[in-house]
Design brief:
CATH architecture of one domain: Sandwich
Organism: Ceuthmochares aereus
InterPro entries: Dwarfin, SMAD-like_dom_sf, SMAD_dom_Dwarfin-type, SMAD_FHA_dom_sf
Number of helices: 3
CATH topology of one domain: Tumour Suppressor Smad4
Protein name: SMAD6 protein
Order of helices and strands: EEHEEEEEHEEEEEHEE
Keywords: Transcription, Transcription regulation
Structural class: mainly beta
GO molecular function: I-SMAD binding; transcription regulator inhibitor activity
Length: 225
Amino acid sequence: ESPPPPYSRLSPNDEQKPLDLSDSTLSYTETEATNSPNVTPGDFSDASTSPDAMKRSHWCNVAYWEHRTRVGRLYTVYEQSVSIFYDLPQGNGFCLGQLNLENRSETVRRTRSKIGYGILLSKEPDGVWAYNRSEHPIFVNSPTLDIPNCRTLIVRKVMPGYSIKVFDYEKSCLLQHTADLDYADGPYDPNSVRISFAKGWGPCYSRQFITSCPCWLEILLSNNR
């Protein structure tokens, strides 16, 4: 059976929770902000949505990347939650296994095979939650996970069966009011979340930037709450 949505068993005071409610938060820092990679358009169709969903405004777009190459077009999300998986469809969602790319490296192929049930992304009143449904860790970075008034990025490692609030609406509003606009090392998007599958990045890894990760997601949040 598919696990329940993450918010049904979480304490709002804890950043990350597993099924048994024990604490298992791992983190490390990244000393440099990543530049937005160049987009390579794919020859893939846009994600389909139901007529009822089309009547509502979307709350995020999801881009799938392999290293510095974006594979496929943006997947627009209208429902309150969406499953992002490889080739194990459980209802509606974003199937990454259907996105083809010529000359895919063996490293990417191995990582894609580890995505499995992937993640459940859920929009809640307090923010956006991601639940790791795969059998391997995911790694998450977002502006609201960073330390306030510090340019050092924080990347969270989320083990299988755990969920984490990847974006906090209240913190985001505070950050946008006090944001330092001097980002000389590249574009800065205060409403984006980056999630890599199986492979982490940062000073603790050979991969310094997320663009070195074989398979990762860019969650582009809408300003509509």
